[in-house]
Specification:
With 379 residues, this protein is an alpha/beta fold. The chain has a domain at 2-198 and 312-378: Vaccinia Virus protein VP39 (Rossmann fold). The chain is built from 9 helices and 14 strands. The protein has helices at residues 12-20, 32-41, 91-101, 120-131, 143-151, 212-216, 281-287, 300-309, 313-340, and strands at residues 2-6, 23-29, 47-49, 65-68, 105-111, 163-171, 182-190, 246-247, 268-270, 276-278, 349-351, 354-357, 369-371, 376-378. It has a 7-stranded mixed β-sheet, with helices on both faces. A 3-stranded mixed β-sheet has the order 8-9-10, with no helix packed on it. Strands 11-12 form a two-stranded antiparallel ribbon. Strand 4, helix 3 (91-101) and strand 5 (105-111) form a beta-alpha-beta unit. Helix 1 packs across helix 9.
Length: 379
């Protein structure tokens, strides 16, 4: 099962997807330190250090899945929260990739702030664009006018490329990650695939959440001899209002990168004697459920920024396994149906306005006429 990943960062989502069974064809990432990290942990030849806006997706051929974490600063509670008006909003590039490659599915992750009431219209716009990625923005058309046209589209009647899209706020701590980390996942499944996505059930309840102590109890103190290159003590930790560190016998607070660098308070451990110290890179990556052997490149601050931006590996793996099972079931079902009767089409059925499955039309990257609702265009 082949996939590409956009806005890959240091590879938390990528490692989880790899653990789930997916094979990466390409990583597209602009940050040089993150690209160095990706090259250290994956095939260096598939790491594209560049602005995704300049990437030619036609070079990829057939892709089963697109995943990624579009930059979250436009929606972050700690940032400027400018959404569509922020040049760092790269959801349009994720939509471009889907429209050009027509994958069977996609998995995107973003911050909780995406669900703020002030972003409601724009989030609706994102979801509808992901639902109808071929419903093109007209020349000089505003996103709000485009949103009104999208809201008028009938899903069952729309003849272009379309996806069944779901989103949910999930807490990484519910899936065995020793960190309180709430993030929005947006999942899409192409409309010709009859298998339905279901959200993976939490693996632990809040009484059984893993703590910092659980994650680090077997690790050496950074101020003692240990031989771990990324387990280097960093001094100067102190508490101040709003930044008091994470208690050692509880899950970590959300590790953050911050709009203006690493906010040290979230990346400190508060021990039972009330003493504080900064987490080492080694400790932070374990709290994000990276393997101990996973290399994070750059200085302490740069490495912590990458880790703070990452998807916890264990959470990514849980989501990836659910998607891998769904797409594998589709492939087995398609092979079985073709062997029984190659000319037998699926029936078309609907549940309200949601199309469950349609005919056996095949979406081809190279040959696909697109119905946009306002005329057609050829790729």
């Amino acid at each position: 099962m082949q996939m590409i990943e956009l806005f890959s960062g240091c590879g938390g989502l990528a490692k989880g997807m790899e653990n789930a069974g997916f094979k990466h064809l390409a990583f597209i990432e602009i940050n040089r330190f993150a690209c160095e990290t990706l090259r250290r942990n994956f095939d260096p030849g598939i790491v594209h250090e560049m602005d995704v806006r300049n990437f030619d997706f036609s070079s990829m051929g057939e892709v089963d899945l697109i995943a990624g974490g579009p930059p979250c600063q436009p929606f972050s509670l700690g940032g400027l929260a400018k959404a569509y008006d922020d040049h760092r909003d790269l959801f349009p590039q994720a939509i471009r990739a889907i429209g050009e490659l027509a994958p069977k599915g996609f998995v995107f992750e973003n911050v909780k702030g995406l669900l703020r009431k002030s972003f409601a219209d724009y989030f609706d716009y994102v979801v509808l664009r992901l639902t109808f990625p071929d419903f093109a923005l007209r020349k000089n058309e505003s996103w709000r006018d485009h949103l009104e046209r999208l809201r008028s589209v009938s899903y069952p009647r729309y003849a272009g490329l379309k996806y069944r899209v779901q989103y949910k706020l999930v807490n990484a701590a519910d899936y065995g990650v020793p960190q309180i980390r709430e993030r929005v996942f947006i999942i899409g499944v192409r409309s010709d695939i009859k298998e339905e996505w279901s959200w993976p059930a939490p693996t632990v309840n809040n009484k059984s959440w893993r703590t910092i102590q659980d994650a680090l109890c077997r690790e050496p103190d950074p101020q003692t001899p240990h031989g771990l290159k990324d387990h280097v003590f960093v001094g100067g930790a102190r508490a101040y209002p709003g930044h008091t560190g994470s208690e050692v016998d509880k899950p970590s607070k959300t590790l953050k990168a911050g709009a203006h660098g690493v906010p040290g308070g979230e990346n400190m451990i508060r021990f039972k004697d009330e003493s504080l110290r900064y987490m080492t890179v080694y400790e932070a990556k374990l709290i994000q459920s990276f393997p101990a052997s996973y290399a994070i490149c750059g200085t302490w601050g740069e490495a912590m920024r990458q880790i703070g931006n990452a998807v916890p590996v264990k959470l990514a793996e849980v989501m990836g396994r659910s998607m891998f099972r769904l797409l594998s079931a589709h492939d087995r079902s398609k092979d079985r149906d073709e062997n029984l009767n190659p000319t037998q089409p699926y029936r078309t059925g609907t549940d309200g306005n949601l199309l469950l499955f349609e005919s056996t039309k095949k979406y081809s990257v190279k040959q696909r006429a697109v119905q946009s609702g306002c005329g057609s265009r050829k790729r």
